[in-house]
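Reopening this one. Same input as before:
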Amino acid sequence: MKNEAISPKKSTVVIDKCKEQKNRMKKELSVASAFLTEWFWQNVDMKNAIPFQDPDYLRQRWKREFYKQLGAPSYGYGELQKRMDKEMDGVLKRLRAEDIKLTDNDFYAFSYTAAGLDNVLIAHLLEIPKPQDVALLKHHLKNTFLRLKSPYKFEYLALLASR
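Same output, byte for byte:
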C-alpha cells in the first residue's frame, strides 16, 4: 500500500485539529504541570538545599502551590475558580451574588465538587476533619439550591451532582 500525499486543504484541517487538541490538553494539564514542576524542583534541583530539609517549609510551599491553583477560603480565587468563571459564563460570580448565606467553605467545596474532586481531597483542602462532613456540607448545599428562586438553581445543582 502506498502512502498517499495529503492535499493542502486536508492538511489545514488536520493541523487545525492538532492545534485544537494541543490547546485542550494544555488547559487540562496546566494544574498537574504546576505541581509536577514544584515536585521536581524540590526533589531534584533543590534536594540538598538547607530549607528543603525542613518538613514545615516543604508543607508551606506545597500549600501555597495548592491554593494558587485550587483557591481556598483564606487564599481567595485560584486558577480553578478563575477558569470556571471564564468558561462557565461567570457561574461562581453569579453564585456569590445570590441571596443566600454561603460560608467560604461552602463556596470552595462547591467549586471543588464542580471540578470533580472527591470528598477525601476536599476535606484535606478545606481542613475539614472527615470526608463524611464534606458529604453533609454538599447535602446542605443541595437543599439550599433547591429552595432558591434563581433561574440558575438547576445549573448549580448540576455542578454539585457527584455523578
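So the earlier flakiness isn't reproducible anymore. For the record, The CA atoms of residues 46 and 120 lie 30 Å apart.
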